[in-house]
Amino acid sequence: MIDQDGWLHTGDLAEMDEDGYVKITGRLKDMIIRGGENVYPKEIEDVLYTHPDILDAQVVGIPDETYGEEAAAFIRLKQGRAVTIETLTSYCQSQMARYKIPKYFFITDEYPMTASGKIQKFRLKKQALDLIKE
Known about the structure:
GMP Synthetase, Chain A, domain 3, two-stranded antiparallel sheet, 25% helix, alpha+beta, 3 helices, AMP-binding enzyme C-terminal domain-containing protein, nucleotide-binding
């Protein structure tokens, strides 16, 4: 939607560097607010991508009684690889601020997708909540 000043509001979050380049950092609707801190799933995903055993990662926010929301990470591993939750947590502790570290990690083979190939994060949220209740 274009506002009265001619700005197009896409719902994307971005930051501009000192050279004037704009980098997309995520989507407003995906932002996690944990204990008053803004947590961008893409930031966490980018760190998880650097882990040598991880093929892909998707992070979603889920409700939390203490902090409002917590991050839950769904991880696809490279073929033949294995990790523990402790290993993933330790890796994240060495790479990001404590409040950004996912509280939950789930190993999966695939993500729920639309017919056009987009990941359905709302279904990942539901899946995370269902897994936590078990």
